Structures are given as structure tokens and as C-alpha cells.
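BUG-142 | component: ligand-complex export | severity: low

The export step for FE2/S2 (inorganic) cluster jobs runs without errors, but we want the raw record kept on the ticket for reference. Input record follows.
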Amino acid sequence: MDRKEFLSAIGLTAASAVVFSCVGCSKSENEGPSNANNPPTDVDFNIDLTAASNAALNNNGGFIYINRIIVAKSTSGAFLAVAQACTHEGTSVTYNGNEGVFFCPNHGSKFLETGVATLGPATVALKRYNTSLNGTTLRVFS
Ligand code: FES
């Protein structure tokens, strides 16, 4: 019995199988409207730049997500840290070093490296955090 015959036998069409397969789909816990304007507060943690999981920060233009914050290294080598959740509907923003902006792939909002919204629909800035480099340890703090 092939897939089509199987679905037919249990009363499903290919279309309903697609819908069925998406039941339970959801955004990650870091995304969604509840995070849109609920940035992390009282932030103070260290990032080990020698750890493999943080290797992206050794490259200009690289970024990682940690503790609901996106930490990036600009094309000029400066470390940047802003809230991960887009202020529109909470989707995780990415960093585009070539443009020097944080970008939301959901509806296209853009934010300066300072977090200021420059292209909607988001109008509220991403919360910005301080960074301080000591050897191979990067501190991110409020
Ligand atoms: S969720 Fe980011 S622009 Fe809509």
C-alpha cells in the first residue's frame, strides 16, 4: 500500500494530511506576542568566546542567541546586544552585518545596531544591553 492508498483507506486526503501534520505547530518559546515588549531585565552574564557554541562571535557579522538576547559582532568588530524578540510580534530578529541592522524575518522590520526601529511595522526599539570584553570573556549586562 502506497501513501495515497493509505491516506484514502483512513479517510484522509493529501490536503487534510498537510493540515493534520501542522496541528501542534507553534513558535518557539522565545517567540510570540508575549515576548514582543517583554525584554529581559536585570541582565548580567558572561559569554566564553572560546566555547564552540559561541564561535559565531569570533567572526565579524556573526551572532548568537542567549538568554532571550541576540549578541552580535559588527563588521567593525564591536559587540552588540539587544533583545531577541521583535517588538512587533515577538519573532526572533537576526543580525545583518553588511547593512548594520537587526532584521525581523516575519514582517520585515529593521532596527539599528542601537535597537532603534527604522522600518516597520515595528515602531518600538529593541532593548539594548551593554557589553564589555575582558580577554575571551564577553560580559552582557543591563
Ligand atoms: S514580528 Fe517582527 S516585524 Fe512583525
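Assignee comment: Attached the raw record above. Strands lie at 44-48, 63-66, 69-73, 79-83, 94-96, 101-103, 110-112, 117-119, 130-134, 137-141.
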